[in-house]
Design goal:
Layout (H helix, E strand, L loop, with lengths): L6 E9 L3 E4 H8 L5 H5 L4 E4 L5 H16 L8 E4 L11 H8 L9 E3 L6 H14 L5 E8 L9 H4 L5 E9 L7 E9 L7 E2 L22 E2 L1 H20 L11 E4 L4 H11 L10 H4 L6 H11 L8 E8 L3 E8 L1
Parallel strand pairs: 4-5, 4-6, 11-12
Antiparallel strand pairs: 1-7, 2-3, 6-7, 8-13, 9-10, 12-13
Helix pairs in contact: 3-4, 7-8
């Protein structure tokens, strides 16, 4: 049985861009009939950047988390950005967030960690060990996403996404508090790597190739194939995650999933037998905000008082790769 790790999520924060786009707005823009988005994606409201950058949004979310914890940036000794798409190729987005927070001369280590939609979950898993080992005292984890690279002619995928940012602060749990991480697991099945990808802008297809091959720089997703792979892997994955700590899904006060798509989430929830009131859903008024979706949903669960201190919760998600991950924690 794995030993619990005494890590506390001290505070959370969230930021949504100013530009609020309804399903009706998007239907008009894309030339879709009224009600198409409600029927196909169910995302009735999402936000898109209008002047904001990813690092600015990350700084706004981080500031809310710091304010909620009663801390300043000087109380943080590591800043990690857990986004799927960086603001620019170099430097890392975390350095740009540090600058936006007015801490450009602080020396606080800042770096990125990327596992696409599971970036935040992987960041929480990885950095919790460094906090538990005493390497860092308090870590600020940020996920900030701008949905560049959307293929606006692919109506099935482009109507799912939104922009935004979320942040959490983690530290060791004080004596007498129950907050802890009980289990964490991540698995990757790269035979599904081509089911969700953007091939351009790395060192395989340089941006100078854009005009010759613009399709390399657009996001592609095979939604049905991804759902089938998720449905195939998730049940046994959850057994491998939960059995060592002698837990079941019924023991969770709340499951906080990656907000991939409302239809897929609904089917997965029923497939796993999770009651609707224990399944945190925000995709209908946020869209799929990629790596920011799990910490955004966690923030909303806290703000809406759907979870309280001492509650056992499950963070659960899938990602391009194809990867699946989960963390069981006592909030």
């Amino acid at each position: 049985i794995p030993m619990p790790m005494r890590i506390k999520i001290l505070a959370t924060g969230k930021y949504l861009p100013k530009n609020r786009v309804t399903a009706a707005d998007l239907e008009e823009r894309l030339g879709l009939e009224t009600g198409w988005i409600a029927k196909k994606s169910g995302v009735m409201v999402r936000h898109f950047v209008e002047g904001e950058t990813a690092s600015q949004m990350g700084a706004f979310a981080a500031s809310e988390a710091l304010h909620g914890a009663g801390l300043g940036i000087e109380d943080i000794d590591c800043l990690v950005c857990t986004s799927s798409v960086p603001e620019q190729a170099i430097p890392c987005t975390a350095a740009l967030v540090q600058q936006q927070l007015g801490a450009g001369e602080s020396g606080i280590p800042a770096f990125d960690l990327n596992a696409t939609c599971l970036s935040f979950l992987c960041g929480l898993d990885t950095l919790s060990y460094l906090v538990a080992a005493g390497r860092y005292r308090r870590v600020l984890l940020i996920a900030t996403e701008v949905t560049t690279g959307m293929n606006w002619s692919d109506k099935e995928s482009c109507t799912l996404f939104g922009d935004g940012a979320a942040a959490v602060i983690i530290e060791s749990s004080p004596e007498g508090e129950r907050s802890e991480i009980l289990a964490a697991r991540i698995e990757t099945y790269s035979h599904g790597a081509a089911l969700s990808e953007c091939r351009g802008a790395g060192n395989k297809h340089h941006p100078k190739q854009y005009f010759d091959n613009p399709e390399f720089f657009l996001f592609t997703m095979q939604g049905r194939a991804l759902y089938r792979l998720s449905a195939q892997i998730l049940p046994t994955f959850l057994e491998r995650l939960l059995q060592p700590i002698q837990c079941t899904l019924e023991d969770m006060k709340m499951v906080i999933p990656h907000q991939a798509s409302l239809m897929a989430m609904r089917l997965i929830r029923k497939h796993l037998g999770v009651r609707e009131e224990r399944w945190m859903t925000i995709a209908h008024n946020h869209g799929n905000t990629v790596a920011a979706s799990i910490p955004m949903a966690l923030h909303e669960a806290v703000v809406q008082k759907k979870i309280r201190r001492g509650d056992r919760i499950l963070l659960l998600g899938t990602a391009a790769g194809f990867s699946v991950g989960g963390i069981v924690l006592v909030y």
